[in-house]
Amino acid sequence: MELKFVSNQKPGKVDVTTLRRQKLVRRIDQQIGLVRSVIEGHDPRGSWFWMDETGSYFVPIKYGRHTLELKKGMFAVQCQNLDDVEHVLCTFRGMVLNGDMDTHLTMKSAEIRNNFGR
């Protein structure tokens, strides 16, 4: 492997939007790891996804303790199996990195900050 030298330096202050994206991506990565541990037969704690009595899985996306509204009145994605759950989480990870979830994150952040002012 050949080293590729660049003149970039670490920025002193990171944009708030970038910090929100990084925080959510870290949590999604953690959830992907939890899906893999369920597939291996473990019963992890703190997973976002759940299975109902019919065997369908549901995947919400959470920012902190708060569930994001993905579409008007819709807070989760329905999946048939754990492989689909992992695929949905990977899809949302890509959406977050592309900035597709920035409006959701900004609105939820403002709502969380307002709750501290009570």
Largest sheet: 3 strands, antiparallel
CA-based gyration radius: 17 Å
* Domain module count: 1
Helix content: 40-55%
Strand content: 5-15%
Oligomer: single chain
Shape: globular
* Count of individual helical segments: 3
Terminal CA distance reads 56 Å
Q: N-to-C SSE series? A: HEEEEEHH
- Counting helices, strands and paired strands, the structural category is mainly alpha
Write down how many β-strands occur, each being a DSSP E stretch of 2 or more residues.
5
- The side-by-side strand order for the widest beta sheet comes to 1-2-5
Poorly predicted parts: none
Average pLDDT, rounded to a whole number, is 93
Keywords:
118 residues, mainly alpha
Short synopsis of the structure:
By secondary structure, the protein is mainly alpha-helical. It has helices at residues 16-39, 82-98, 102-116; strands spanning 50-51, 57-59, 62-63, 66-67, 77-79.
Detailed description of the structure:
Helix content is 47%, strand content 10%. With 118 residues, the protein is mainly alpha-helical. The chain has one domain (17-100). Helix 1 packs antiparallel against helix 2.
What's the layout of helices and strands?
Layout: H1 16-39, E1 50-51, E2 57-59, E3 62-63, E4 66-67, E5 77-79, H2 82-98, H3 102-116
Antiparallel strand pairs: 1-2, 2-5, 3-4
Helix pairs in contact: 1-2
